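Page 37, continued from 36.
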């Protein structure tokens, strides 16, 4: 459960100490990243797809699954990629009878401006992983959604030995399930997605203002209630992001960096006043740090 999950992560800081025990996995390169849905690659990634399909084709007859974070790669630096690329991936996996596993732990439940990020490409994965937003941070809870035909593979009399017995200690947590149901009710009742997209525009404009006023940010990008930017550093090994984080914490905002990428991922019901305060603290932190 854990070595397998780590094997499909491509972040060296997590992987490298355990290389000797990880499974052999392949990763797609040359992903068509965008800054927003306005980018031309958002609608048409054909210039990238030919190269990517060449990477995939050697595994068409042997791979059982392809795992993705739809639309936004979180720990990879809040990188946003083309919905057309995601659509092409889904078509390729269907054509070659390969399962598509969508990790919507971070992107799902409204974070990207849609209930699920997969909706941007109009696709349905074979497995869908949910968590985090499922309980709005009140307690740890996650779920894997599967289609009926997959469920039936494990449904039989006990004696048949087909049960899927892998789980963690808190599987089926009743309180977690109750909170998750209430979160889903609130999202449906409050026209939440409209509000998320309105919040996202405020966040994007605020980060662009900081980039312009400080001259220290580049590649400002965002979708839904996610916005990120890269610090302009002369030495890539310099931990400028950590220095900005330390200063922001002093000023009252937990601005957790991803290397030299700073980002905002606030609660989906964050107030305009809080966002304005976050903008001021971020701007002050970026300005006060030398890099």
């Amino acid at each position: 459960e854990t070595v397998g999950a780590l094997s499909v992560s491509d972040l060296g800081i997590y992987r490298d100490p355990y290389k000797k025990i990880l499974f052999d996995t392949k990763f797609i390169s040359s992903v068509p990243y965008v800054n927003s849905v306005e980018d031309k690659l958002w609608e048409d990634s054909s210039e990238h797809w030919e190269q990517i399909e060449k990477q995939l084709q050697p595994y068409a007859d042997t791979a059982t699954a392809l795992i993705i974070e739809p639309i936004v790669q979180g720990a990879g630096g809040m990188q946003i990629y083309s919905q057309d690329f995601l659509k092409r991936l889904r078509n390729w996996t269907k054509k070659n009878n390969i399962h598509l596993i969508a990790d919507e732990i971070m992107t799902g439940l409204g974070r990207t401006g849609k209930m699920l990020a997969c909706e941007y490409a109009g696709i349905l994965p074979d497995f869908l992983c949910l968590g985090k937003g499922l309980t709005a941070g009140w307690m740890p809870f996650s779920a894997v959604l599967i289609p009926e035909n997959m469920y039936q593979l494990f449904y039989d009399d006990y004696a048949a030995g087909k049960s899927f017995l892998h789980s963690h200690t808190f599987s089926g947590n009743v309180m977690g399930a109750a909170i998750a149901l209430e979160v889903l009710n609130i999202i449906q009742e409050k026209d939440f997605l409209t509000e998320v997209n309105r919040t996202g525009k405020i966040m994007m404009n605020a980060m662009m203002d900081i980039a312009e006023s400080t001259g220290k940010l580049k590649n400002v990008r965002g979708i839904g209630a996610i916005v990120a930017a890269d610090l302009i550093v002369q030495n890539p090994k310099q931990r400028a992001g950590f220095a900005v984080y330390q200063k922001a914490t002093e000023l009252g905002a937990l601005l957790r960096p991803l290397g030299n990428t700073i980002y905002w991922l606030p609660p989906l019901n964050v107030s305009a006043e809080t966002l304005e305060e976050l903008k001021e603290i971020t701007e002050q932190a970026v300005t006060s740090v030398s890099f």
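The radius of gyration is 20 Å. Flag for discussion at group meeting. The CA atoms of residues 71 and 81 lie 5 Å apart.
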